[in-house]
């Protein structure tokens, strides 16, 4: 007996000891002074009242707000998506501007003080020389050449959304100067501008893809769950078959099948369709499982008895009861699509220039020389990671919030 | 158990047939065939095209047949172990891809072992020490692993391996061992190169698995039987390993089915970056030039690998969990 107790005591610091949740401390004994009246209904405090009257969506919002990380991620994503509306103005240069005398220039850092004196944001110009031994372009900041940045200025002209000519930029290089915040690539194009433009493609591809996947997933999963029987068997089998494929080889095969003659815009749509076509099985399974249990509920039977048709029952009565779950799972699958597009474009089977996505930019960083000599060409991966993480955090928060009564 | 195995094997047949049809259709999707691509290429180079020879080739490989006959020829060949003939390499497909498939297989197995070896202890640790610094750090690294594109990680690791360990860049062995018979030196060299692809392919799967094991274990740890066990004086280690872990591990095994397609497809992209003699480059080339038999048999084998993986995971689950076996029986 004593040995058992001893074991328990000594185990306090070991992994199992903390399993029980909050500490079982002493709770002080307390007696309420108010008279005890069991017959009387307890009046609700204003806070309780608010809680009881809140709609489900409102409660989800309250729960989501407590997830700091999820809210921050959501705001970040909103900002990023908003930026894609005005990419042209945010980028200091046009997508296609080339600077042939600044090929593979390293990032220029923004300074505030020049020789101890405040001049506002500025960059140093470049001293360029070609190292004749290894033919490497060597750029060094020229400490005498101060190039103050201009803000809300006119610079490279562009066609805004391909609608009208404009040359307004939020920030521009000094007249005759350069502003390569993230360096330049092998054609001397500004990486930062290209990343800003790339966001437009990379961020939307997930949305369009998820829309397609949603449509398929809800229809197939809904039909399978609602009708059951052979529809269910058929849907289950096809889901199984699609899931058995290794994703990337299948993407490769499908995107290799896109005709070479297609314009880049069509290829963009083709790729989103491919990404969406392969993503729906997971969603369909979730929808099916939910519907299987929901269709037994009384309100579904009631709708049936009142003569509602299956599509109406599915979309009007059943789906809304777990729409929040669907939104959460959609948020979690957008990153897969963004990564998928990145991978395809990296392999040269996805989007093609002149359409610029983060994957297309990364395909420049395909060999080890880049890592060693021009590491800034790998920078487009930073927004990829940030966006994927943000979607994951937001999705996690949404998933928790989707069940506000839990 | 035997009946379940047989039933599961039988359902595999229509799945495989459907997969082969899909693959065939996808490969046939682009207009034209290998020969028309070839002719166009010759014409572009300004070389004369020998119509008779093209017609002869077309007939020899059955490209003049209707599609369904072509499919039957290909599928029938597969059943007899004849993978067809690669137009581009002018070699039987089996000679071309045999070694590559073997290496894909080896890498996949090692990667899955790696995933388990890493995910298991970390998953348990992060669940037991929830909200500790270790938990946060490991979870953060896991998230980064999920979010970083594989190919970039491959490049960075390759660079690091070259700088720190002097491992030669690319490939699965040092250049002097290529095309040499197997020896201890060669095996060692392969091992030295293998870890980079294994780590790269394994990261995202490992990260996902850690999160799943952590969540499952946390659910179990809050249940009453754990409290009861502790109250009865069960040692913490025993309390953890004997009950909650056994329950939490069930989805872990079901996951092999998900993990394998992921690993195989991860291997395809990483092999391009790392220049591994596995699938990647050759598959892409074959798909682009419509080298029908090569691409088709390649895809078919990759899909088969995952179907078999799913079969194994289902069988393992059935062996562990009697409910799964019995449910199938009741449905019959």
- Poorly predicted spans of chain A: 1-21
Nearest-angstrom radius of gyration of chain A?
A: 29 Å
Report the order of strands and helices of chain B. HHHHEEHHHHHHHHHHHH
Largest interface: A-B, 54 and 64 residues
- Major sheet strand order of chain A: 1-2-3
Mean pLDDT of chain A: 82
Strand order of the largest sheet of chain B: 1-2
Helices of chain A, by number, come to: 16
Q: Any idea what the radius of gyration of chain B is?
A: 25 Å
Account of the 3D structure:
The complex is a heterodimer of chains A (406) and B (332). Chain A has 406 residues and is α+β, with helices and mostly antiparallel strands. Helix content of chain A is 53%, strand content 13%. Chain A has helices at 2-10, 46-53, 56-65, 68-85, 87-90, 191-227, 229-244, 247-256, 264-277, 280-294, 298-305, 310-318, 323-346, 358-362, 368-373, 381-401; strands at residues 111-114, 117-131, 136-148, 150-160, 164-172. Chain A has a 3-stranded antiparallel β-sheet with strand order 1-2-3, with no helix packed on it. A two-stranded antiparallel ribbon of chain A has the order 4-5. The longest helix of chain A is centred in the middle third of the chain and has 37 residues, at 191-227. The radius of gyration of chain A is 29 Å and the shape is globular. Residues 1-21 of chain A have low confidence and may be disordered. Chain B is mostly helical. Chain B has a two-stranded antiparallel ribbon. The model of chain B has no long low-confidence stretch (mean pLDDT 79). Classes of the chains: A alpha+beta (406), B mainly alpha (332). Chains A and B meet through helix 1, helix 7, helix 8, helix 13 and helix 15 of A and helix 1, helix 6, helix 7, helix 9 and helix 10 of B.
Short structural description:
The complex is a heterodimer of chains A (406) and B (332). Chain A is α+β, with helices and mostly antiparallel strands and 406 residues long. Chain A is 53% helix and 13% strand.
């Amino acid at each position: 007996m004593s040995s058992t107790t001893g074991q328990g005591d000594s185990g306090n610091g070991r992994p199992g000891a903390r399993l029980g949740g909050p500490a079982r401390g002493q709770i002080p004994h307390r007696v309420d002074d108010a008279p005890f009246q069991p017959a009387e209904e307890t009046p609700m405090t204003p806070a309780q009242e608010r809680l009881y009257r809140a709609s489900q969506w409102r409660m989800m919002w309250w729960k989501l707000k407590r997830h700091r990380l999820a809210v921050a991620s959501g705001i970040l994503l909103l900002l990023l998506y908003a930026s894609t509306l005005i990419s042209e103005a945010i980028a200091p240069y046009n997508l296609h501007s080339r600077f042939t005398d600044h090929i593979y220039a390293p990032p220029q850092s923004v300074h505030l003080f020049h020789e101890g004196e405040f001049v506002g944001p500025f960059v140093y110009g470049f001293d360029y020389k070609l190292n004749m031994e290894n033919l490497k372009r060597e750029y060094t900041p020229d400490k005498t050449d101060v190039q103050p940045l201009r803000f809300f200025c006119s610079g490279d002209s562009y066609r805004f959304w391909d609608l009208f000519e404009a040359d307004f930029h939020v920030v521009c290089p000094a007249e005759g100067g350069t502003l390569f915040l993230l360096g330049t690539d092998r054609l001397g194009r500004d990486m930062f501008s290209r990343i800003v433009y790339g966001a437009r493609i990379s961020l939307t591809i997930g949305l369009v893809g998820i829309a397609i996947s949603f449509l398929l997933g809800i229809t197939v999963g809904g039909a399978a769950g609602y009708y059951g029987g052979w529809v269910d068997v058929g849907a289950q089998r096809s889901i199984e078959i699609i899931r058995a494929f290794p994703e990337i080889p299948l993407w490769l095969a499908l995107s290799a099948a896109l005709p070479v003659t297609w314009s880049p815009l069509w290829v963009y749509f083709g790729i989103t369709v491919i990404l969406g076509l392969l993503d729906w099985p997971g969603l369909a399974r979730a929808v099916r499982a939910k519907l299987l249990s929901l269709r037994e509920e009384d309100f579904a039977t009631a709708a049936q008895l009142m003569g509602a048709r299956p599509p109406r029952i599915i979309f009007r009565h059943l789906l809304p009861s777990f729409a929040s779950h669907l939104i959460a799972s959609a948020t979690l699958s957008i990153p897969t699509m963004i990564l998928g597009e990145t991978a395809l474009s990296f392999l040269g089977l996805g989007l093609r220039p002149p359409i610029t996505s983060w994957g297309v930019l990364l395909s420049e960083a395909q060999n080890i020389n880049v890592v060693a000599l021009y590491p800034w060409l790998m920078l487009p991966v930073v927004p990829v990671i940030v966006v994927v993480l943000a979607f994951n955090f937001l999705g996690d928060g949404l998933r928790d919030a989707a069940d506000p009564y839990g | 158990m035997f009946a379940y195995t047989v039933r599961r094997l039988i359902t595999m047949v229509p799945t495989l047939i459907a997969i082969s049809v899909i693959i065939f259709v996808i490969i046939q999707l682009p207009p034209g065939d290998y020969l028309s691509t070839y002719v166009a290429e010759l014409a572009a180079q300004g070389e004369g095209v020998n119509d008779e020879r093209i017609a002869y080739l077309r007939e020899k490989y059955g490209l003049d047949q209707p599609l369904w006959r072509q499919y039957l020829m290909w599928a029938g060949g597969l059943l007899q172990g004849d993978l067809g003939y690669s137009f581009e390499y002018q070699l039987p497909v089996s000679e071309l891809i045999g070694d590559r498939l073997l290496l894909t297989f080896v890498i996949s197995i090692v990667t899955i072992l790696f995933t388990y070896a890493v995910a298991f202890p970390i998953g348990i640790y992060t669940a037991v020490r929830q909200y500790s610094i270790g938990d946060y750090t490991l979870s953060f690294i896991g998230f980064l692993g999920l979010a970083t594109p594989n190919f970039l990680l491959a490049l960075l690791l390759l660079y690091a391996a070259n700088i720190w360990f002097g491992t030669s860049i690319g490939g699965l062995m040092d250049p002097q061992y290529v095309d040499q018979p197997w020896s201890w030196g060669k095996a060692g060299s392969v091992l030295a190169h293998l870890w980079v692809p294994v780590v790269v392919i394994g990261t995202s799967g490992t990260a996902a698995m850690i999160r799943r094991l952590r969540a499952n274990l946390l659910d179990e740890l809050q249940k009453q039987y754990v409290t009861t066990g502790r109250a009865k004086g069960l040692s913490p280690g025993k309390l953890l390993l004997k009950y909650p872990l056994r329950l939490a591990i069930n989805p872990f095994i079901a996951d092999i089915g998900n993990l394998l397609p992921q690993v195989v497809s991860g291997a395809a992209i990483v092999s391009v970056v790392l220049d591994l003699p596995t699938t990647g480059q050759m598959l892409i080339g074959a798909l682009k030039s419509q080298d029908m038999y090569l691409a088709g048999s390649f895809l078919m084998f990759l899909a088969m690998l995952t179907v078999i993986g799913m079969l194994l995971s289902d069988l393992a689950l059935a062996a562990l969990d009697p409910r799964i076996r019995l449910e199938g029986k009741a449905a019959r």
